[in-house]
Amino acid sequence: GELETGRGANQIGTLQRAGDTRSSHLNSITSLMRMFHATDIFVAAIDSQLQELNSRFDENMVELLILSSSLNSKDSFKSFSVDKICSLVSKFYPEDFTEQEQIRLPYELQHYAVDFFQHVLTLPVSTATTA
C-alpha cells in the first residue's frame, strides 16, 4: 500500500505536508536573511569600534605596547623575547643606550634568559610541615 504524505518511514520531519515545500523553503530563506542582517549590523558596530581605537592610538604607541609586553613578568616571563626587547631599545630608547650596549644587549639577554629559566626550573619545592 501507499503511505500517507507526512507519515511513515523516511519522511522529512520538517515538512508537514507535501504542499508546504515552497513555504518551508521561503521560511528558511527569510530566517537566513534576518540572520545576515543581524550579522551585518554586528560587523558594522565592530568596525566602528575599531576605527575609534585606531584614532586614539597612533602606530608608534601600539608598537610600544606590543614590544613592552615582552617585559611582562607574568607566568615567569612567558612572553620574554630577546628580539622584541632589542627592537624596543633601538626604536624607542636609542639615546639611553650606547652603541656598544646595543650591540651587546642581545647576547646579555640570551644569557639572562638561560640563567633565569634554569634557576626557575631548579628552585626547591617548599613543603609545609605540621607539628
UniProtKB/TrEMBL annotation:
PANTHER family registered for this protein in UniProt: GENERAL TRANSCRIPTION FACTOR 2-RELATED ZINC FINGER PROTEIN, ZINC FINGER, MYM DOMAIN CONTAINING 1
Stated name of the protein: Uncharacterized protein
Organism of origin: Cephalotus follicularis (Albany pitcher plant)
